[in-house]
Structures are given as structure tokens and as C-alpha cells.
Amino acid sequence: MLIGELSRQTGVNTHQLRYYEAQGLIEPARGSSGYREYGTDDVVTVTQIRRLLEAGLSTQEIGFLLPCATGSAPDLEPCPELLDTLRARLHGLDDRIDTLARSRETLADYISVTEKRVSTYLRSHDAGPPEPAAT
Question: Which of 90, 96, 68 lies closest to 81, judged by CA?
């Protein structure tokens, strides 16, 4: 099948399929006309790539893990360094979550303090304009 058909079957844009090829994730054959030709295995591989991307893995990590993937879910077979790679990615996600949580807390504090100042400001100005000074 040509790249357009692979795109239709997988729901992945052709430019993304070319990117996967450039990253070494898929390797289409070349027909006599020079067009990329894909097989049914490529449909499964593209599905695996999409699901691994959804898990937050980079294309470099996926390239490392793809030989361990079976089925479209994909299931990952025990391969050398597989768990180390997955654990490292999970640790990185945990670090980012911690950073985001701290940022969220700091931002919430800024909002809280600012809202209190707005309330104080509004209360002080609800009394009307100040009385003119006696002369």
C-alpha cells in the first residue's frame, strides 16, 4: 500500500508517517516507481508508535522499545534495558509533575494574596470619597 492508504488506515497524517520514517521507526520498501510501499505490519507498527507516544515516550525511546513491542496494544516483551528506559521516563514524568505542583501552589498563593488585597481595596473605597479637609 502507498503512504496515503497507510494514512487512511491508521489515521496518521502522511507528514507524520514520513517523520516516523526519518526517525527510523518505520522502513517502507521502495517500489520500481520510487514510491514508498507499506505492508500490513506497518499498520500495526504505526499503531504501536501512536500508543507509545500517548504514554509520553519520545520517538528516540520508541525506537529503542519498538523491537520489544508485539500487537497493537502494544504489549512489551522483556528486552534488555526495557524496564530501565520505562522507569527513567516515569521518573522524569514524576519530576515534571512535582515541578508543576509547586508552580500551581505558588500561583494559587499569588491569586489568594491578590484577591485579599482587591477585597481590602474595594472595602476601603466603598465608604465613598474622603471628606474634604476643614479650612
Answer: 68
